[in-house]
Amino acid sequence: MEWLTNPNVQGVLAALGLIVGSRHLLHRSASDRRALMEVLDAAALALTVVFLILRPYVMQAYSIPSESMQPTLWEGDRIVVNKLIYRLRAPERGELVVFRPPDVPQVPDPTTDYIKRVIGLPGDVLEVEAQQVLVDDRTALRLSADDISAAAPTTFPQGANLGFFFPLDAGAAELRDGVVTLPSGVGNRLEVRAVRPQDRIRSTDTEVRLNGRVVLSVLQGPLELSYDLSAWGGDPRVSARIYSLNGFPRLALVHGAALNVRPAGIRVNGKRLPEPYVSGAPAYAMSAVRVPPGHLWVMGDNRNHSLDSHVWGPLPRDRVFGRADLRFWPPARLRPLVR
What we know:
The chain is 18% helix and 35% strand. With 339 residues, the chain is α+β, with helices and mostly antiparallel strands. Helix 2 packs antiparallel against helix 3 (34-57).
């Protein structure tokens, strides 16, 4: 099966040689086997057309090697790639393209074919927004597990104010009963509460009370108090009290009427990109970058497990050689991949 979906030139030539040789032997030893020779002739023609014309220039079957495109494509899925379409026009946003990745240090093997989704076109400005905690529609906190500008210093500029990078190992921020809770894999959690001017706040070295009710208590202090949300990407118009223990924030009391949580996502030219196909929101933030002429911005649908443009930057257009048009295997998941 693997040879049929990805045959090499040597294999095709060997098969053609075997067919031609068999026909020659049949012709010399059994002239009455004309029908069988006609079948061999048809097979040779089919091999020539499919593997020497259709496969290099029109279409080809591929096997998905990794989880980077889940849930759209799963490891082991078989797809048909249209290799003619981009000879006639340029790729469009949302299409699944097959390409050779750029030869950069972030790519372990640039000779391996990749498949990703086109997110940005030449001239587009893209930004990966961190998850946000809003108070009365103003940003109180911007939160992510990683700042890609710091993770890939050779690709993206440093110093962008992307916000506070909270270790969201245990899940994203949750809003319940008016309180935002941010779980962490290090055994602590950060709570965000909205407070009004009439609310009473009292604190000691080991606890914080809101209207007489304990909202934070620690065994050993002292709790440290800060009033600056801007270091975490907050709107400077939002006033707050942030209580930390050993440098780790445990409670944020922000002034306002109501809290909300906006998930992380991608902005293209200032507008949020609707992405119903992704496995989940990105756990990283990325400052704005403009796609240069002759390049594309491509990303995997499994955003947090994909080696794509957010790691190695824009993709040269001339490295793209096809569009994924159809998933044909397994049969139960047969469906077109183009809109």
